[in-house]
Amino acid sequence: MGDTPGLLVEHRDGVAILTIAREARRNALDAATSAALDAAVDAAEADPALRVLLLTGAGDRAFCSGMDLKEAAESGAGQGLIPRRGFGGLTERRRRKPLIVALNGAAVAGGFEIMLAADIVIAAEHAVLGLPEVKRGLFAFAGGIQRLARSVPRATALGLILTGEPIPARRAWELGLVTEVVPAAGLMPRALEIAAMLAGYDAATLERARALHDFAAAAPIDESLRFGRAWGEETLRSAAAREGIGAYAEGREAKFDG
What we know:
Layout: E1 7-12, E2 15-20, H1 31-46, E3 52-57, E4 62-64, H2 69-75, E5 81-82, E6 86-87, E7 99-103, E8 106-108, H3 110-116, E9 120-124, E10 128-130, H4 144-151, H5 154-163, E11 167-168, H6 169-174, E12 180-182, H7 187-199, H8 203-218, H9 221-236, H10 239-250
Parallel strand pairs: 2-3, 3-7, 4-8, 7-9, 8-10, 9-12
Antiparallel strand pairs: 1-2, 5-6, 10-11
Helix pairs in contact: 3-4, 8-9
């Protein structure tokens, strides 16, 4: 439903499944596909029936290879950047809902930057990741460098940034950049399993947990503890908490409304 050239959109049991479908261009984002992805995320964020976003690529060669360099050569670089939203409408976006990325292949350049902006990353064993922008006279300013600086040691980050050489999915997992690595055949089943799990949880609880994590990653510990306490005390009084605790006491699965 809602397909546009370059992007396939499916809604399934509270999950918005978005597939970059430019396999012949290694799922590089041109301006049109980037705008379509931005609009699809907007729509999913606004739809209360959708709890989780799941993003992947068509085929098994690439998740996303960044901006479409052929389009860039003809029309100028940066066609996939959305004002105030970043590359593909994701790398600078402040989301409310969880984003899972299923790496079906290479995630390089802007594709790596989109992956770094996700919350959970499931990678196929053959996937590779990297920031090759320096080989084209560019650097990964749309979130790649900034997020690596917060995620891995300096020498590791600059090794990726300055050489432009890719790393395999298993090494990315060792560095904490990837949540899980699975055989290619199990990629989408595992990603969908996790998406369904999250879709069954209380949406406001997930939103606050994500927000507290991101706040705590940058704030002093005493400030983030105060922030957590304020939200936590409110959460303790919520209907979701009552349902979750009551379900445990009664030996049943919790059922959350939203």
